[in-house]
Amino acid sequence: MSPRWEPDLDIRRGNHVIYHLHVHLVFVTKYRRGVFDDEMLTRCEAIMRDVCQSFEAELREFNGEGDRVHLLVHYPPKVALSKLVNSLKGVSSRYLRAEYTGRINPIGTGSVLWSPSYFAGSCGGAPLSIVKEYIENQKRPV
């Protein structure tokens, strides 16, 4: 008897597309001020999970410390990453500043929580050297 085939849950399907896209995002606070405690990070994670769901994406991992958060997001190809990031930072800033008034905006940051920059790194799947080799080997002999 042959082993039963199990579908890979990381590979998602849509109309005319099969995809497996993950991104590692890092957001830092304005001036790298340490403003987060465990309670605020827990709330930030809940907010960002909701934002991801609204984009039909999934927040797979979340962690952070006083001045930054790390996210691993599985997202569909129809999502413009810059729009997802803008929404994650904007919505979380609005909610956290409203809910933690006085604790979230140290002197000098005004009404801004996040630095305007961010890190985005693609991840998952095979190393680039393996993908490059695979593509090179697809050439037909002349």
UniProtKB/TrEMBL annotation:
GO terms for biological process: DNA transposition. InterPro entries: Transposase_17, Transposase_17_sf. It comes from Actinacidiphila oryziradicis. Signal peptide: none annotated. GO terms for molecular function: DNA binding; transposase activity. Residues 18-138 form the Transposase IS200-like domain. It holds the Pfam family Y1_Tnp. This is IS200/IS605 family transposase.
